[in-house]
Design brief:
Blueprint (H helix, E strand, L loop, with lengths): L7 H13 L5 E3 L1 H5 L1 H5 L4 E4 L5 H10 L6 E3 L24 E4 L2 E3 L8 H6 L3 E3 L2 H11 L5 E4 L8 H11 L6 E5 L7 H9 L2 E9 L3 H6 L10 H11 L3 E8 L9 H10 L4 E6 L7 H8 L28 H15 L2 H8 L8 H20 L19
Parallel strand pairs: 1-2, 2-3, 4-7, 7-8, 8-9, 9-10, 10-11
Antiparallel strand pairs: 5-6
Helix pairs in contact: 7-8, 11-13
């Protein structure tokens, strides 16, 4: 079972159900890498870190009846021989988006980020030829490619090489990026010519003090947001902007200017989320040391639901933080906003992306209410977890 922090409670429920049938359980992913001892209570074996090197060892141990409790990766494994098996998707009603991994990790050290904690602020990349081979095998059945890299621009020299090689395939693609890349004209030109339709960028906050607290002052370098956004728009690259509220500099007045910023710049989509302290991150350690965590482990508490604030903010009441995030989402995904942003010249510069703009924004609009108070795990679960052997 692959486990992230938000799905940990449900994963433990599923593990207990299989253990009751005599089926051993192996867990891996971000949460087991951050909380291996906790996860070990619910799994016969725990894969800590990346699995490429340890998975064959685990399978061999299982065949010989000598499964170990922990399998820990020693450093970053090579991705040179990574070959996804896409047969698992057959017969399943997934969107026609091709998910491809070009690289893994990010070299930035944002204090809230579990990615940099697990990968120690480093990145590994696959060989360009291997990625191109995979893309050639799926491009005729996938109208859009999503490079699932944590930050496709983390190593800009390697990314430029990749974009040059990507251009002849004539793809549409999207990914996640850091805003510093938007100040390199050659980089943006290569990005656009290789088929980039949009990028997710973590703007996080308009408050410089908050950016400093999260170790993300690079967001304001070389002209800051305005210059970067102007550069991206000139190359017709759409924006999925993400923002986080709850740092010490945030107040009740932080929400409206942030939404206005996203509207004024015609963001394709945007996220307005409360700060979440993930275990193992510098943020979690700081809030724990300051006595501001409201749960020992919010991800396991039956009372914790989506949109509940798991810590004590300083500049704003927890309930106001929650309500402010919801109000920001409602405003950004109002029909008035969707129609206005739909006629933005960048958002409608490609027929495929323009058609999907309305579908995606309508889905996000519905999610505002659908996800509120959504439980972590099965609410009908009334059994105790069966401990692992």
């Amino acid at each position: 079972i692959s486990v992230e922090t938000y799905t940990a409670r449900r994963a433990y429920q599923i593990a207990s159900s299989y253990r009751a049938r005599g089926v051993p359980v192996v867990m891996g992913g971000f949460h087991p890498s951050l909380c291996p001892d906790e996860v070990a209570e619910h799994a016969e074996a725990v894969v800590v870190g990346e699995a490429e090197e340890n998975w064959p060892l685990l399978l061999d141990d299982f065949r010989h009846g000598s499964l170990r409790k922990f399998y820990r990766s020693a450093g970053r494994p090579s991705l040179a021989h990574l070959r996804p098996d896409r047969t698992i998707f057959r017969g399943k009603r997934y969107l026609s988006v091709g998910l491809v991994e070009a690289g893994r990790g990010c070299h930035f050290k944002c204090d809230f980020c579990a990615v940099q904690t697990v990968f120690n602020a480093s990145q590994t990349r696959r060989p360009v030829d291997a990625i191109l081979d995979e893309l050639r095998g799926i491009k005729d059945t996938r109208k859009l490619i999503f490079f699932v890299d944590d930050n496709i621009t983390s190593n800009m020299r390697q990314a430029k090489e990749f974009f040059r090689a990507l251009k002849p395939l004539n793809l549409r693609w999207v990914s996640q990026a850091s805003i510093n890349a938007a100040h390199d004209e050659e980089f943006l030109d290569l990005m656009a010519r290789s088929g980039c339709q949009g990028v997710l960028i973590g703007f996080e906050s308009l408050n410089p003090a908050n950016l400093a607290a999260m170790n993300k002052t690079f967001n304001l370098s070389r002209g800051g947001f305005e210059k970067a956004l102007s550069n991206l728009r000139r190359h017709r690259i759409r924006l999925y902007g993400t923002f986080v509220f709850g740092y010490d500099g945030d107040t009740e007045g932080s929400f409206d200017p942030t939404v206005e910023f996203a509207l004024d710049h015609g963001f394709y989509i945007a996220a307005f989320n409360h700060l979440t302290p993930f275990p193992g991150t510098p943020l979690y350690g700081r809030l724990r040391d300051e006595g501001r965590l409201l749960y020992d482990a919010w991800w396991l508490d039956p009372s914790y639901t989506y949109n509940r604030i798991p810590f004590r903010p300083l500049g704003i009441e927890a309930e106001m933080l929650r309500n402010g995030c919801i109000a920001a989402r409602r405003r950004f995904y109002s029909w008035k906003s969707i129609i206005r942003r739909g006629f933005d010249p960048v958002n409608r510069s490609d027929a495929f992306m323009w058609r999907n703009f309305y579908l995606i924004n309508a889905m996000h609009r519905g999610d505002v209410s659908l996800r509120d108070h959504y439980p972590l795990g099965d609410e009908s679960w009334n059994s105790s977890f069966i401990p692992a052997n």
